[in-house]
Amino acid sequence: MKDIRPAILLFIIFTIICGGIYPAIVTGVAYALFPKQSAGSFIADKSGKEIASTLIGQPFSDPKYFWPRPSASGDFGYNSMASGGSNSGPTNPDYLKTVGDRVKALKDTGVTGTVPADLVQASASGLDPHISPESALLQVPRVAKVRGVSEDILIKAVAEATVGRQLGFLGEPRVNVLALNLMLDRVK
Amino acid sequence: MNPYEWLQTVIFFVVLLALVKPLGSFMAKVFQGERTFLSPLLCPCEKVIYRMSAVRPEDEMGWQRYAGSVILFNLVLFVGLFLMLLTQHLLPLNPQKVPAFTWQLALNTAISFATNTNWQAYVGEQAASYFTQMVGLAVHNFVSAATGIAIAVAVIRGFVRRKTSLLGNFWVDMTRCTLYILLPISIIAATMLVSQGVIQNFSEYKTVPLVQSTNYDKPKLDDKGAPLKDAADKPVVENVIVKDVTIPMGPVASQEAIKELGTNGGGFFNANSAHPFENPTPLSNMLEILLILLIPGALTYTFGVMVGNTRQGWMLLGVMLFILITTFGVLQWAESSGNPLVAKLGVQSINIEGKDVRFGMAGSNLFTVATTGTSCGAVNSMHDSLTPIGGMMPLSLILLGEIIFGGVGSGLYTMLAFAIIAVFVSGLMIGRTPEYLGKKIEVREMWMSILVILTAGVTVLILSGIAMITPQAVASMSNPGAHGLSEVLYALASMANNNGSAFAGLNANVNFYNLFGSLAMTIGRYVPAVAVLAMAGSLAEKKYVPPSLGTLPTDKAPFAIWLTLVILIVGALTFFPALALGPIVEHLTMLGGN
């Protein structure tokens, strides 16, 4: 039982190293090199007040805004205190009904043809800030009508808000819905 | 797969394979006590640590003492975290004033992190303080990973050494692993993650106004907290308008790096690596997958160096890669084909339920097979929402026993047990003496290998059986029918194999899963660990048998194919009935349109 001392002492020593010194080093380096990212990639309004994080999506349901993906986080969509997905299985009748209702809601706004999957299936994080470019373009006629602007302007705005594949080959092209809607509100 | 997905996947594996040799030989130097480029900086620290903790580095241990030290250390880890979780509300760095854990949840969580499982029955952003996450959980992420690697190294020494009972010093192996390997890589990786947008701060949670307010129906509760019902037995609700949301903060990057590198997998937030603050870009995603596979992959090379034949290591890596890439292919096919029941509603036929757009299909699926082939268990997509055949891939990777890369250390030693079984069976079939790496395989080695391989499987099947007749366990299912069985099977498999991911719809924070899960994690971690050390002890005492004409070469392609078959056959024999009742029935139901 001479190994009890090292067991307890090493636990304490490594708690200090891994739980104290290591995060302190990382925090120091992060603040020095990437102050904006380490704080949460917030954007500020004109007065300098932080109004949103570009990484965390927000709920939109008003027809004048582009809509994000459905979200299954907590009590209401895009609740950043309860991140998570629906965890619905593929044959769950409740899930299939929910997707059917979402498809109908979109078709009621004048959408025709096959609906892009990301607009009716919920994300993993519940906070997904992005939709596919197809899903954004699909919504252009509705937003244009409500806002009374030409579709061309909105198509341009969508193109501007589209992020390409990272380094040219990683991930998928995507549109940040919050950034796009904030852009629309600014020019209005 | 579109051309970009092909390119991204190919480049990923090229980068991974390019890192295997440099990291693998570096680790071999570390564990053989040789000087490395980090020695000038770390050697003095190491000496101070040994002096402070009363460790005599030259004092080598036999297998019993090595195993005893592992257990003792893990016991201290468990007690430390258990107490910390029970007293969380009294400890510092708790700006959100979160309360203490219940004892059942604390028990489950403490065992979960000590065993490198990182099963999480709590919601990180609501239930854990910064102190818990950073000091309590992060330290476990390091030392439980180092424990696994140390055991693997001791097992390799069992093959290498001759006529000795000594396997090395656990305290030294664990310390050197943490200092020379885990900490430096974590610091670099965490910095890279922050550059992509992973947060690292100690701010209070931030409240921001919503651009457009939202609303929801909130169930009204009576004085006792039970939902109120009206005359028609419908829940009474009130409509609540939400004008702003709270965004959680915290030291995420430092935990994120070691969570992947140590194949731990416990997320800072509930959504784990799907959360934009844990995994903000496609590049951070690829980096995290790389971290998951890095050490288990490189350890095969370390093994090759230490046994004096690197082809032995490449052979094991080849088997792992083959199964990993095959399951990735099936998963990618299943998810891209989509769900016919959803397609019928007029939706594009791919399954993106439970996936985030930025990762894309391939980026989500690669993460899924990496995190379940290893015992990591972090997730960037929700496995519960995968198509039935898609969901069977991560489930099967877990059920195979966490050997496809596997947990850091534990993957290698479990794979070596499979190799011994393969050598033995082929020896019987072709009438050759079963030898592996110059050591004769005898009864004791076979017993221990079988213990290593079957413990988790038997635990899963027995506990799943008990779950099916326990009302509380059944009531926790979130999806009806065959999918519910998959949820329970996945949960117990995940805990018994120390993975920690979940079909997360299952409500796991109930006594059944907290307590039986704790049992499964404990058995699944320590029985194989002690068995494999016992095997190493007996191997180390044997003399070296030089290869002769009668020796089966274990570093060539035929043996790799044979080993793959043995792995698949053992897996299929153990789990086919359970899989047939879960995912396979569900797949047929889905195709049948009911």
What topology emerges from the helices and strands here?
The complex is a heterodimer of chains A (188) and B (594).
Chain A: H1 4-33, H2 35-39, E1 42-44, E2 50-53, H3 93-107, H4 117-120, E3 130-131, H5 133-147, H6 151-161, E4 162-163, E5 174-176, H7 177-187
Antiparallel strand pairs in A: 1-2, 3-5, 4-5
Chain B: H1 3-31, H2 39-52, E1 61-62, H3 63-86, H4 103-114, H5 124-127, H6 130-160, E2 166-168, H7 170-196, E3 206-219, E4 237-247, H8 252-261, H9 282-307, H10 310-337, H11 340-343, H12 360-373, H13 388-399, H14 410-430, E5 435-436, E6 439-440, H15 443-468, H16 471-475, H17 482-496, H18 511-541, H19 557-592
Antiparallel strand pairs in B: 1-2, 3-4, 5-6
Helix pairs in contact in B: 1-9, 1-12, 2-7, 3-4, 3-6, 3-18, 4-18, 6-7, 6-8, 6-18, 7-8, 7-9, 8-9, 9-10, 9-12, 10-12, 10-13, 10-19, 12-13, 13-17, 13-19, 14-15, 14-19, 15-17, 15-18, 17-18, 17-19
Explain what you see.
The complex is a heterodimer of chains A (about 190) and B (about 600). Chain A has about 190 residues and is mostly helical. Chain A folds into 2 domains: about 5-40; about 40-185, no CATH class. Chain A has helices spanning about 5-35, 35-40, 95-105, 115-120, 135-145, 150-160, 175-185; strands spanning about 40-45, 50-55, 130, 160-165, 175. In chain A, strands 3-5-4 form a 3-stranded antiparallel sheet. Chain A has a two-stranded antiparallel ribbon with strand order 1-2. In chain A, strand 1 and strand 2 (about 50-55) form a beta hairpin. In chain A, helix 5 (about 135-145) runs antiparallel to helix 6 (about 150-160) and helix 6 (about 150-160) packs across helix 7. The radius of gyration of chain A is 22 Å and the shape is extended. Chain B is mainly α and about 600 residues long. Among the domains of chain B are: about 20-200 and about 250-300, no CATH class; about 205-245, no CATH class. Chain B has helices spanning about 5-30, 40-50, 65-85, 105-115, 125, 130-160, 170-195, 250-260, 280-305, 310-335, 340-345, 360-375, 390-400, 410-430, 445-470, 470-475, 480-495, 510-540, 555-590; strands spanning about 60, 165-170, 205-220, 235-245, 435, 440. In chain B, the strands form 3 sheets. Chain B has a two-stranded antiparallel sheet with strand order 1-2. Chain B is globular. The relative contact order of chain B is 0.12. At the A-B interface, helix 1, helix 2, strand 2, helix 3 and helix 4 of A face helix 1, helix 3, helix 6, helix 7 and strand 3 of B.
